Amino acid sequence: MGDWVIEEGIAAGSWGSVYAARYSPRRPIREGADDEAFRPQSAALKFLPTGTLTTRHLQHLEDMVSRELRVHESLTHPRLIRTFQSLVIDDPARPRLDGAVVVVMERAADSLANLLHRCGTAPLTNGAGLLEQICEGLTHMHGAGWVHGDLKPQNVLVMEDGSARLADFGLAAELDGTHAYLPPAGSPDYVPPERWTEELGEHGTAVRTTADIWAFGVTAHQVLSGRMPFPGATGAARAAAAAAYASGAGELRLAHSLSEGWRALIEDCLQPDHERRARHDAASLLARVAVLKTGADEDENLGVRPQRRAQRSAPRRLLLGIAGLITAGLVAAAAVLAADSGQDRSDTSPPIPTEYRPDLLRTGTGIPPMYRKLIVQAGTACDAEGVSPALIAAMLKVESNFDPALRDPAKDEFGIARWTPRVLQFHAPNSPPDAAFSPAVAIPAVGRMLCWLSPRLQGDFKDDRALVLAAAYRTSATTVNNADGIPALQRTYVEKVKLYMGRYTPAKPS
Fold it and tell me: Rounded to two decimals, what is the model's pTM?
């Protein structure tokens, strides 16, 4: 098929089959050819045949193929399976294959469904880590304006290094305002109750990002307990139990083995209607999963909804804060912060805004909409001098141009804020050795880093405090203090930050 030699079959479903393949170009590769440089030596080829289908099924398949290709063309992220090319078979002598679309994708080692099957009724090893990565993929899709539409363990692939990728985007849909539209399809176990009551319109049935949140809650319960959250011997029976729960005629009975923090998160994902699930978007869930993964949910207050949290002592708050810093990659500051844990900073921190604030970050300036709320939260996480949403936005622009998939192996820097994985791995051995931290983790970490750096900058600097902070972020507080301001080698970087900070700072009312 093209430059690919088909090997063994991997999987087969209702709408296609997947085969392993190796790269064997039919023509010599010109040295330095850009179009060949990214090709892997092995891949998975997904065949979507057309010749044996009825007209109605053919139209449905064409729609699914179109959706899948649009996702691959529009979205790139370490937690989404990569597509290298798409091909069409031209072979009139074989009606079953002629006209079939073939999608050439990354080859995975396994699927989450297979891992769950092999574990039986036991929790999945490293389940929390896989859930974090699934949530990273959802956060990126939702932030870019897409609904996955068919999230389930079968559509979560596991790579050779044990990391997870979202796959199978045949039911993915781009949001049009608050809704997207899908054909009336889906797996009963993972479809939210309201999906079955939505009217079928001209464009299909309406779907929202909260449908993925429901599916994530079901998946999380499976991964952490080894069983489905709703009773029943079949998917249809379990869907009926979920519908009864949503109507108030049944109860949500989660596994007793779940810790308090995970139980609260899954309950939030499985709220019985869209409106209540909408209070918990993928980005906020990701932040909670990142903390719960550390095992800190043994503290009954961590990960539980805000109204159920008890007031903590200052040392306890700071110790839990350190866990968050390590999870976010802010490990360079953790040891010093622990030594300074007797100082109570919590009372001076302003409340984190729940919405994007145009009075804190100027609109219409090219900041990607899916990152604005995170940037405002990071820039208002403390009242340290110089820290602001505009500064953080400017730094992210200069660091990566807001690219979450940035890779700079020469400098060992990755992701939207150019974190260095080996630094994180030194303090958190279970972290991936070479991964771009998701924006939901990296952007808050930038805010925490600046909040930690600001009180450590000593002296009356002639430069703007915010710009001195930017220089310290790229070097250290000690380097900036010794230079009595911005070091010469950081001047170019800081000038760029200054330029964009001016663009992103809201104009003062006259």
Answer: 0.58
Cβ atoms of 429 and 422 within 8 Å: the answer is: no
- Give the mean model confidence (pLDDT) for residues 154-167: 93
Q: Tell me if the domain spanning 4-105 has CATH number 3.60.20.30.
A: no
Q: What is the pLDDT of residues 401-452, one digit of tens each?
A: 998 878 887 887 888 888 776 654 433 344 455 555 678 778 888 888 899 8
CATH code of domain 314-504:
1.10.530
Q: At what angle do helices 209-225 and 282-292 cross, to 10 degrees?
A: 20
Of the candidates 263, 312, 310, the residue with the CA atom closest to the CA atom of residue 288: 263
- CATH 1.10.510.10 for domain 110-308: yes
* H or E element at residue 45: strand 42-48
Q: What is the torsion angle, in degrees rounded to the nearest 10, for the CA atoms of residue 485, residue 491, residue 496 and residue 500?
A: 10
Does pLDDT of 62 surpass 70?
no
Instruction: Tell me what percent of the residues of the chain surpass a pLDDT of 70.
Output: 73
| DSSP line for 250-262 | S-----TTS-HHH
- Are the C-beta atoms of residues 434 and 281 closer than 8 Å to each other? no
Residue with tokens 């992701």: 415
